[in-house]
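Hi again,

Forgot to attach this to my earlier email, sorry! This is the prediction with KG4 bound. I've pasted everything inline since the attachment limit keeps bouncing my files.
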Amino acid sequence: MLILGIETSCDETGLALYDSERGLLAHALHSQVALHAEYGGVVPELASRDHVRKILPLLRGILQQAGVKPRSVDGVAYTRGPGLIGALLVGAAIGRSLAWTWNVPAIGVHHMEGHLLAPMLEPDPPDFPFVALLVSGGHSLLVRVDGIGRYRIIGESVDDAAGEAFDKTAKLLGLPYPGGPALAKLAEQGDPGRFRFPRPMTDRPGCDFSFSGLKTAAINTWRKLEPTSENRADVARAFEDAVVDTLAIKCRRALQATGLKRLVVAGGVGANRQLRERLRNLAAESGGAVYYPRLEFCTDNGAMIAYAGWRRLAAGQGENTAIEVTPRWPLDSLPPVA
Ligand code: KG4
Ligand code: ZN
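Structure tokens for the complex follow:
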């Protein structure tokens, strides 16, 4: 079964062709970073318009790359939510139109389910059940995953998502958009021993997170300092250490609470080097294993949408023909795949 995946939930246009026999055949991504940079954040209307411009050229590119004809596509998967409503509608409208034209089924995929299943695209995919840490710009979730659509949320952020905290702190430190990766890069040069920020909500039981206080700790410290690059790097380092430590503590708790050994880490913050290393060590210490998507599939991409769509289309879950999106969509409301 050959599936076209289309991701347009935010500021990246991602397209991919996934074949259930041969694996990932081709993928392409257009990032809108340059478009939004001068505004310091994503401008939803500009995002929607750019998705309109990019989807079909990217589609032509991946069809050529994979050497397949449009008519050999067996199904279309597009991101239905959560995300920016206008951006989602572009992917949904084009995805559904292509499916009508080719007379194949289409399915709206949950963006976080896409992230969650992204490690399945790698050579050594995890078996169910596992604990998933999903850390993106909009969500921080710890989920017990017993199968596709069998999700139990065991922890989530009570305020900012991890990526959002990275982005906001980066902005406060005067780093250019998109802040998360820039802050992480700067933190590599920082002195780990100079400042120590709190590890929020680790002193009470449970797996929920809170990151907005860390952002405040960082800015309060930064405001008292000379704005030198060394000081900026030290604050960035203390912030990253606190986020990584907090996430690691909660992951360890989630593994203990569920008795599971496998940990999946996905979403944009899963691209963070320090976090990857820390969780790899944590899993090794407990005799378990940690699974990541390759770096480029941690952040938004079409491949994860094609894969998640295939799993649901193969189970007969293609929907009706309406073009609908779900900008707010709880992950644990999804139907299971038998
Ligand atoms: O999953 P994603 O591409 O989009 C959403 O679904 O939100 O995640 C984007 C988020 C942004 O907040 C970005 O700053 C963060 O992931 N991010 C990182 C790194 N790379 C991306 N945060 C920390 N370290 C990184 N290396
Ligand atoms: Zn995402």
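The chain has a mean pLDDT of 96. The first helix runs from residue 33 to 37.

That should be everything now.

G.
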